[in-house]
Amino acid sequence: MATQHAHQENLGHVVFIAAAAAIGGFLFGYDSSVINGAVVGIQRHFAVGAVETGFVVAIALLGSAVGAWIGGRLADRWGRTRTMQVAAILFAISSIGQMLPFAIWDLAVWRVLAGVAIGMASVLGPTYIAEVAPAAYRGRLGSFQQLAIVLGIAVSQLVNYVIARLAGGDVNNHLWGLQAWQWMLGACVVPALLFLLFASTIPESPRYLIMAGRVRQARTVLSEVEGEGVDLDERVREIQHVLRTEAAPTMKDLRGPALGLLPIVWIGIILSVFQQFVGINVIFYYSSVLWQSVGINQSDSLLISFSSSIINIIGTFIAISLVDKIGRKPLLLIGSAGMAISLASAAWAFSAARPVGGTVSLPDPQGMIALVAANLFVLFFALSWGVVVWVLLGEIFPNRIRAAALGVAAAAQWIANWLITVTFPALAEWNLPLTYAMYALFALLSFLFVIKWVKETKGCRLEEMG
């Protein structure tokens, strides 16, 4: 009984520190999505068109690619928790900057800085969680990153909706001396300060501590996260052996025969790219504009965006409950199939959009089919690719290259996200149904890729990844 109680206490501690590390994911989701509510306000305030808007929305993602690229190396140099603290401070500063821009280019600069912070957090969370989580729970704990992302998305949509309502339903109306969209962007400072607080309280990763020669501290953390029944000497020796035989990761270590990179690195990169090329972030960055473009008013479109976020959370919980039971690969296949069908349905429905009295509207039943298909797409993404890609990126790479490889894969994810985000406004103006058909094609290709190249990692210890 005492052992069971100790195990529960131990698991509770691991859950707490994994959740604290995943607050970086919350920031990622919050900032990525908060721009959704502000897009129309920015367009009107600075009198810019679709191309400039797409640029400002998407430029944060280039910053994120840089943050992801340097995040892994900074984590190996400064430690996981110290680097998280730096990311939180950068994020807080950029939030204030985004709230008070004096020109469109000034807003773009602050968006880039926010992106760097998010990119760093996107690498640090999965790396840290994978390194502190016991193998039996690693899939579920790794899922915290995506759960935090979708909670960040939902909270930002809710905050946007509340701010828009307080401002009388128009994001360009003034509220306490600023326009409503400025308050939307400034609210990001609250989760940034929370991340700083939690990153200052959680223990350092035992693998980093051993890498840095702080073995006594590593033993303490290992006993806290892996429980009393674990042979600490054996675990320390195992990690030391892995670190001793495999030098600290550099970009050179990722080189291989397959177009200059190791095959496993390419698998991580392609998983990351497919996760974005299905167009998921179009729903979260532009959904209010998308629904307005087919005849739904501004306030209601923000509410629809919030309902999509709730479906996203439900799907994420489904994935968390299944990822360690049925495994990573089956979930990816279910998600790819569901996304391909729902995206194709949305493409068909949007093809019925017609101009009516100066605005665009969708007739019945296509309007309802578009709404259902978009939300089914979110659900299938959330219960599969949303969670599983982050879990896999934390565990598929061998120990010696994990931080560096995760940085490269996450940078690829941000660049893919940027490509989709920056092209959507112009593609949607050109041909919205064809744009969604293209995303459906990528979902189908992702299904074929998983069948051929992705191996199951359920229940394997990180030291076994080779």
Model description:
There is one protein chain. This protein has one domain: Growth Hormone, Chain: A. 77% of the residues lie in helices and 2% in strands. Helix 2 (23-46) runs parallel beside helix 6, helix 2 (23-46) packs antiparallel against helix 8 (189-199) and helix 6 (138-166) packs antiparallel against helix 14 (298-322). The strands form 2 sheets. Strands 1-2 form a two-stranded antiparallel sheet. The chain has a two-stranded antiparallel ribbon with strand order 3-4. The chain is built from 18 helices and 4 strands. The chain is globular. The protein is an all-alpha fold and 466 residues long. The longest helix is centred in the C-terminal third of the chain and has 52 residues, at 402-453.
Give descriptors for this structure.
two-stranded antiparallel ribbon, globular, 2% strand, 4 strands, disordered N terminus, two-stranded antiparallel sheet, Growth Hormone, Chain: A
